[in-house]
Every structure is written in structure tokens, then in C-alpha cells.
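Support case: FE2/S2 (inorganic) cluster complex. Customer-provided input:
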Amino acid sequence: MSVRRLAPDHVQPASFAFDAANENWADQQIAKYPQGRQASAVIPLLWKAQEQHHGWVPRAAIEAVAKKLDMAPMRVMEIATFYTMFNLQPVGEHYVQLCGTTPCALRGAEALKKVCEEVIGPQSTVSADGKLSWLEVECLGACCNAPMAQINFDYYEDLTPENFRALLDDLRHGRPVKPGPQNDRSCSEPLGGGETLRDAALYDGTVIGAGDWQARIADQRKAAAEAAAAKAAAEAAAKAAEATPAAVETKPATETAAAGRPKPSEPKQPSGAAHDTPAANGKVSAAAVKESARPADAKPTTAAPFAGKPEAAAKAATDPALAESKPELLTVARDNKPDDLSLIWGVGPKLATMLNGMGVWHFDQIANWKADELAWVDARLTGFKGRATRDDWISQAKKLSTGWRPDSALGDKPVK
Ligand code: FES
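Agent response - structure generated as follows:
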């Protein structure tokens, strides 16, 4: 470490002022800080003053910076004397900071010091021609290229007494020099070049490209998406299978208990349509028996539309002789983006899961059901048979498939 004192009076200039360009630059730096915090610009201004004054900071510059920043000169002096980046003594045109810390010392920094003394002279003095000065400093963070020196703004590494002496000579005489390692290595590679990752194939894309990797990754992604979709469908089907009639009967209000949704036992329910399980009240069972007693040729061969005819729907749901036709079903939702079927009035989470388990995922599927397909579905709404007809799912789904959405998450109650 060097002693941090101002240069003697006989080398101090009488005054200092930023030139016009630097004055403008200083104003811009000050403007970066909030009002009343101009002192924060002290380091940049000192740095610019040093740059303008041939690489060192005289007392007059310290005072000028203090005045510009409205600081006490002592406060600026404290900064200038604390940070070794500020030179308080005159320096040569090429200012050599030679690292003398352990790694550089172990790699020959002592020999380099001798070169400095021989070529330049004592530490902290400027050579007679004004070209060179030097100072021993602490680690400059380039230990892997030790020993090294910083000369003005550049690092010169892997120095030996020979190449360092030649370097100083080139600088003194204005010849071009090469910053960085002064031997044949690149950056911090081992001497003689890198020892690892030398296979050229690592860099031409052939390794990563082996076996058409893009197609392989695409196939892997596709397989993963299909597996995920199949798993989701299997889980939905399993949940639907768990919803047995007995289980539903013990909790008949589960699907209809949501706020604002009419309960089966409420008197406002449309006649013949309010009960989750038509067989539960006995009425439909009797009707079914009656219906089944009709001659075969008297039975409908094609299903009549049941919308608005809950009793007929109930028959369709329970009478195997009535025409049913399996609608188009999907194994998984298209693009894995199922519609929110619970937006259909009367469809809650349980029914939505049941529909998904059947293969119904989208509004447009329901919207396109024919009467016989509606009957097929209605007959399979375990615990809720007849619900699809009673709540006119087809009309609701037609509206929903256009993009229309109800105000309530429960759906829009169909007008009977
Ligand atoms: S010890 Fe010299 S650069 Fe770190």
C-alpha cells in the first residue's frame, strides 16, 4: 500500500476548472441524482477531473469538485484519499500498476518490480521523459494470468521480466502493444491451448442433431400429451362409475343444492321434472310399465322431440323400447379444452363429470343432439334421468356454443 497524501505544493497547479465538454458532462452526472443529493456525483466528477489533469488529482481539482457539488472540501478530500483509483501524485503518460499480491508474487512479480525500478525508477516517481511511472498495488483480480500489471486502462498478463521489459519499451516509444496475455494463450486457457472439449463435432451441431432430434422431441411431446389426455379421460370415467344410483339417492340434493338453484322438493319445480331419479317417486315406474305394454308396432320407431315434454322424456329414459341413438362421443376434449358444461342450467360438477365420462365435452356436441340421442343420454344420467330434457339442455347448449355466456355461473334457467 502506498501512503495517500496530496502531492507536494511545488507540483500542485494554481487552479483547476473543467473544460467546457467536461463541465457539460459533470452537469449531466449531477442531474442523475435527486435534488439535494448532488454529492452522490463526487466520484464520477473526481474521476473526470483526474482524466482531464493527466491522470492525477491535484488539490485545486478537489476544491473545484467540492464547490460544484456544494460540499465541504474535506469531504471530497476524504473520498480522494480513500480510493486508490485516484492518484494524488503526478503519474507518467503510461501509469503502471503492478500487482504484488500472493499469486502474482508466487509467479514472479518480484522480478517485475526490479524491471520497473531499472526501466522507470523508484515507485511513485515519473521517469525523466514523463512517459512512465509505476506503483505496486494489491490484487487486480486477474490472478489466473499472474503475474500481471494494469497500465492505464488495460491489463497485461502472463508477464515475464523479458516480455515486460519489451512492453515498457514499446510503450515508451509509442509502438503498438497487445493487451491481455503476453504469451500464446487465449484469455485464461491452459498454456498451449485448451485440454478439454476439443472435439470439433461438439460445435457443428452433429452431436445434438444425431437421430433427428427435433422429430424425436416432437414425438415425445405428442406421446406425453396423449398419455395425459387418456389419464384424464380414465379418471373422469372412474368418477362417473362411482356415482351409483344408490349413492345419489342418499344425497339427492347434492347436484341441486347450489345457491339459487331450485331443489327437487320445492313446490315451484315443474311437474314431473324435478326429481333426480324418476323411479324414486314411483310415478315413472308405473308409466314405464304401462308404456311397455303397448304393441310393438304402436311404439315410436323414431323418437319424437321431448323438449318441453318431461313425461315423455322420462319414458324415453326408462323405456328401452323407445328409440335411442348413441350420439357422437369423444374420447377426450378437442385440443384438451373442454367446455364448462356447468354453465348449462341444471348441470353441476357431478353431472359435468358424468357427461365427460360418457364422452360429452363440448356445447356443440349437445347442441347437435337429435331427440333419440337426447333420449340415449337422458337414460344414462344415473341418478338424474330425464334432466337433459327437463332443463332443455339442447337449447341451452345452442346458445352457449355461439359464445354467449350467462350472467350466473349456474347457467341461465330455461323459460318453460
Ligand atoms: S494476485 Fe495479482 S491479480 Fe490477483
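The first helix runs from residue 20 to 31.

Case will auto-close in a few days if no follow-up is received.
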